[in-house]
Structures are given as C-alpha cells and as structure tokens.
Design goal:
The protein is of the alpha/beta class and about 280 residues long. The protein has 10 helices and 9 strands. The strands form 2 sheets. Strands 3-4-5-6-7-8-9 form a 7-stranded parallel beta sheet. Strands 1-2 form a two-stranded antiparallel sheet. It binds NADP nicotinamide-adenine-dinucleotide phosphate.
C-alpha cells in the first residue's frame, strides 16, 4: 500500500501533488525519446501529474516529449512551461506561448513561468501573461529564479501580485532559500517549486546521505525527496528518463522522516544562518 502524494494549493485554489516530474535534457536525443515518454507516463500513472518543461529544453524538444506523453490523457496532467527571458517582451511572450502550445499539442498551459529575469521590463512580461490568461491559453503564471528582492519588485508592477509560483534551486545541499525566500513565499500562499531536487544527481553520491539512506533501507534520492516533502508549500520536480527511477522517486512519499532524522540531516546539510544570494543553475 502506498501513501497518496500530498497536495499543495496554488493561489487560485487548484491543487497539485507535491512531487512532480522535470524534463530538462529530455527531447535532445531521438534514441532516448521512447524511454523518456514511457518514464513520464509511468510518473503520471503513479500520481506525479505535474510535469515541468520549458521552451529552452531541447529547443522545444522536451515540450514535444511532454506532448507525446500526455497525448491521450491531457486532463490528468498539470503542465508547467517557461518563456525564455530573451523572448519575454509583450509580443515575444505571446508568440513564445503559441509555439509552446504547438509543441505540447495542447490548447492550454496550466502554469507559465518567466524562466529567469532578463532585459525586458517585468511589467511587459506580466501584461502578456495576463493577456494569455484572459484568452485561456494559460491558466496561471509565475516566475523562476526570483530572489526576495525580485519578488518585491514584481509585486510593484501592475498585476505583479498575481504570480502563482516561484521555481528555484532547492535541495538538501542548497538550502539558502529557507532563510528568507521560502518563508516570504509561504506567507503569501505562493508555492515554491524546488528544481534540481537531487542537485542534478550530485547528492546521490554524498557519502553521508548514502549512509543515512542505508539506515532507512531507502536510496539517497528517496531521502532527498522525502526531506523536501517535509517542507510545506514546496513542490519538487525530479527528472528521470527511467521508469524504474520514476517509481523509486515516487516511493519517497512513503518515507516519513522523524524529527530525529531531520536533525541528523541538519547536521550533515546545515540550514542557512544568514542571507545568501539565491543560487541558480
Ligand atoms: P535533478 O532532478 O536534481 O536530477 C536529475 C538527475 O538525477 C538526472 O541525471 C537523473 O538521471 C538522475 N536521477 C533522477 N532520479 C534518480 C534516482 N532515483 N536515482 C538515481 N538518479 C536519478 O536535476 P534537474 O533535472 O536539473 O532538475 C529537475 C527539473 O527541474 C528539471 O528537469 C527541470 O524541469 C527543472 N529545472 C528548472 C530550472 C530553472 O531554471 N527553472 C533549472 C534546472 C532544472 P536519469 O534521467 O538517468 O534517471
């Protein structure tokens, strides 16, 4: 028997499971496409229905993989995609969204993010996001790689307070956001999407984490994901192109870390004691 994946809510009330799926580096190699599609579909079967992608990944290739994966089951999935900062002018955002919709083979993106801050004024990007929302092409919008200062600036532009999520680097080895950004977002009911929750795979070779995982009869990936599950308002989006590893990641939900376990993790991966600049990959 598996535990159900817990949900978290976006400001508009829509709920998503706190464990989703990433797609960076998918759609780059035709020989891997079938495995990538199968792995995303296995993830959907297991309840990891939020799928994160971006126009940048594989130059639209990852969006096309996602489109294939959800072709006959679009309503089950919650699709997140992102506009590149260089495209994020008012008209550029509208055009990028149309391209993403075509790549995804769908009529709507559930959550559309500005991938990181670039040269275009935030007010222009937000105006385009709001226009796309009115047209039903996106259901909500948000940002990525925004630190607290960026979030505050965003709030100062018209409709900037409508941001529904902030996607940032967050994992056991990179806990800087716990100092200020995570509480800031929580206080405003804005979920944080934790990208690279396995630190792009690097965490899995950490000797201490390997040791802790053994004691739980779990894998390092599962402990890294189980840790993120204990953080309220956080959605993690591990990427795997393997059906077995998708299952392994999903099973992290069944691991319940005690306060003693969390204290041990704090000793090995200390939480921040002061403000650090938001790390970015
Ligand atoms: P990640 O999810 O931390 O790690 C992915 C790596 O771990 C891959 O090499 C994967 O290999 C491996 N892996 C996954 N599950 C595993 C398991 N159970 N056991 C062993 N290895 C495992 O890194 P990420 O892809 O950088 O981050 C996740 C997602 O976040 C991305 O795919 C993307 O959607 C998003 N992201 C967003 C931004 C942004 O700027 N907004 C930046 C980076 C990432 P296999 O595929 O071979 O399993």
């Amino acid at each position: 028997m598996h535990d159900t994946i817990p949900n978290t809510a976006f400001p508009d009330g829509r709920k998503v499971p706190v464990l989703g799926q990433g797609t960076w580096r998918m759609g780059e190699n035709r020989a891997k496409a079938a495995d990538e599609i199968r792995s995303l579909q296995a993830g959907l079967d297991l309840g990891m229905t939020l799928v994160d992608t971006a126009e940048m990944y594989g130059n639209g290739g990852a969006e096309r993989i996602v489109g294939e994966a959800v072709r006959d089951r679009r309503d089950e999935a919650f699709i997140v995609s992102k506009v590149l900062p260089s495209n994020a002018s008012r008209s550029g955002t509208l055009a990028a969204c149309e391209r993403s919709l075509r790549n995804l083979g769908t009529d709507r993106i559930d959550l559309y993010l500005l991938h990181w801050r670039g040269g275009h004024p935030l007010a222009e990007t937000v105006a385009a996001f709001e226009e796309l929302k009115r047209a039903g092409k996106i259901l909500a919008w948000g940002v990525s790689n925004f630190d607290v200062d960026d979030m505050k600036e965003l709030q100062s532009v018209p409709d900037g307070g409508n941001a529904a999520a902030n996607q940032v680097l967050y994992n056991l080895a990179r806990r800087g956001i716990e100092y200020d950004l995570l509480p800031w977002c929580r206080d405003r009911g804005v979920p944080v999407m934790a990208y690279s929750p396995l630190d792009e795979g690097r965490l899995l070779h950490d000797t201490d984490l390997v040791h802790i995982a053994k004691a739980h009869q779990a894998t390092p990936a599962q402990i890294a994901l189980a840790f993120l599950k204990t953080r309220s308002g956080v959605i993690s989006i591990p990427k795997t192109g393997s059906t077995e590893r998708a299952r392994e990641n999903r099973d992290a939900i069944d691991i319940h870390l005690t306060s003693e376990n969390l204290a041990e993790l704090d000793r090995v991966f200390p939480p921040p004691r002061r403000k650090t600049r938001l790390e970015v990959i």
